[in-house]
Amino acid sequence: MKDDLYFMQEALLQAEIAQDQGEVPVGAVLTFNNEIVSRAHNTSIRSGDPSAHAEVNVIRDAAKKLNNYRLKGTSLYVTLEPCIMCCGLLIHSRIENLIFSAKDPKSGAVESKLRLLDSDFINHKVKYCQGPLVHETSEILSNFFRKKRL
Length: 150
Fold this sequence. Notes:
The chain is of the alpha/beta class. It has one domain: Cytidine Deaminase, domain 2, CATH 3.40.140.10. It has five helices and five strands, in the order H-E-E-H-H-E-H-E-E-H. Helix 1 packs parallel to helix 5.
């Protein structure tokens, strides 16, 4: 049976693709019944679309593949803690589980800057946890931004 480590490794591969394309290296996979439905990564820079985060891209693709905008029973694996926008999308698309790797101290809306998914005013609760490969996912992001500053 595939586990969190396997799925996060797949998300990390997507982050590496994003990095190779000059994008912020964040990757995601969405699963249903322990199988990958969709894989995606950030494409904001190439597409000129500030909403083209890995989470948005993977959820849009999965909704098309599953022919349903409600993704009940699914799990999202993402290499970076989601922002406010992406947390809103998780709620509206009814993602059941979120497993993120690196925390985002600047704009993380799950635990770091805000605890949006714990708010009592939202109409759907997403279960979440920090998953594996924290060092690897943090390192790819740090290296990307270090090179950008040079």
